Amino acid sequence: MLPESTSSQGALGEHAMRRPFVLWPEGKPLPTQGYDRAPEMGFDPATLFISPKQMRPFYGPPGEFGYYIDGANYGFTALSFIVTETHPGGGPDLHKHDTEEAHILFDGKVTYLIGDQRFTVDGPYIARIPAGVPHTFLNAGPKPFHLIGVFPHARPAYNHIGPNPLILPLDDGSTAAPKPPNR
User: What distance in Å separates the CA atoms of residue 136 and residue 117, rounded to the nearest whole number?
Assistant: First the structure.
């Protein structure tokens, strides 16, 4: 099924966005509390398109907004996704999955910790994260980026390990990321 407002011409033409999946207005202070909410709208697996209102939104301080798309809930038999809007200095806690994961980034600068390897890359790229390997990342650039995580599993497990070691603790108990480098 195609959404009524979708056409082959309009899908990329007039509806194209410079900043897709805008989850937080630039310049507005980031929330200090995280959340993981139910989707605003239900989803019919016979539908071929999934809108953000049908995805499960989350936020992890300091600066990672996103959507979980557990494939089994959306008609996929072997795929799941995470779509993030990660602000400068933001990134997820250290974690691992029971399946491999690919990160797709078209634009931005990211510092990764995958296993015991730490490195910084500029988009565009695809990062390969092996199953069972602890990993995290940090937006090391000056502006928000959008990252897509792809899992070859309809229900990948998320195993929390601890805080993001790339984000520095402050004396007052809060956290801050290293300042992004000047470009």
Answer: 11
Tokens representing 142?
């000056």
Class of residue 17 by CB neighbours under 10 A (exposed 0-12, middle 13-18, buried 19+): exposed
Can you give the CATH number for the domain in which 89 is found?
A: 2.60.120.10
pTM attached to this predicted model? 0.79
Cα–Cα distance, 39 to 67 (Å, whole number): 9
If 0-12 CB within 10 Å is exposed, 13-18 middle and 19+ buried, where does residue 134 land? Answer: middle
Domain around 97: 52-176
Which stretches does DSSP call E strand in 27-115?
35-36, 56-60, 64-69, 80-86, 94-97, 101-105, 109-114
* pLDDT, tens only, 58-68: 999 889 999 99
Whether residue 25 is contained in a domain is answered as no
